[in-house]
Design brief:
The chain is 49% helix and 8% strand. It is mostly helical and 150 residues long. It has 2 domains: 92 residues, Rossmann fold (3-Layer(aba) Sandwich); 58 residues, Rossmann fold. It is globular.
Length: 150
């Protein structure tokens, strides 16, 4: 565990210094089947409206698609949300996103909804009625993404 914590600290030090980290674990192209890769490209275009990935996004997404853990440190505007949103749409079940940034959480949920993706959040900005409504929708499997604040 200490080794993993040291690696995390090292990655954050690199990010703070302004140097872009390099994806340290590459995914062999044979690990991603053609169906998953094609679906990934289709979701990228049809759901998010993009023709191509930003730098490092595709490597991170491929890493996640083969169910490997990832710590991703990218600058503002580097496309971090797509790194978990796109795989979340490809995998079955609910994707839970934990974020301390409530305003960013709301923006991402609103954007997903605009793109036709069922998403909701639970945080301190909701009224009791809104919170209960979101919990009901969650229990009825009416969400693909659930955003939570710690």
């Amino acid at each position: 565990m200490k080794r993993e914590i040291e690696k995390i600290i090292e990655l954050f030090d690199i990010a703070i210094s302004g140097n872009m980290p390099i994806v340290s674990s590459t995914v062999n192209s044979t690990e991603i089947n053609n169906e998953k890769y094609d679906r990934c490209r289709t979701v990228l275009k049809n759901t998010f409206g993009y023709d191509k990935f930003l730098p490092l996004q595709e490597e991170v997404i491929n890493h996640v698609l083969v169910k490997k853990d990832a710590l991703v440190v990218l600058p503002t505007g580097g496309g971090k949300p797509l790194c978990y949103q796109l795989p979340g749409l490809i995998f079955d079940g609910l994707t839970v996103v934990v974020s301390p940034l409530i305003s960013l959480m709301k923006d991402q949920v609103d954007q997903l909804k605009e793109n036709g993706v069922p998403a909701l959040f639970l945080n301190s900005t909701l009224s009791v009625e809104e919170y209960r409504n979101n919990v009901t929708n969650l229990r009825e499997n009416k969400a693909k993404f659930l955003y939570l604040s710690p």
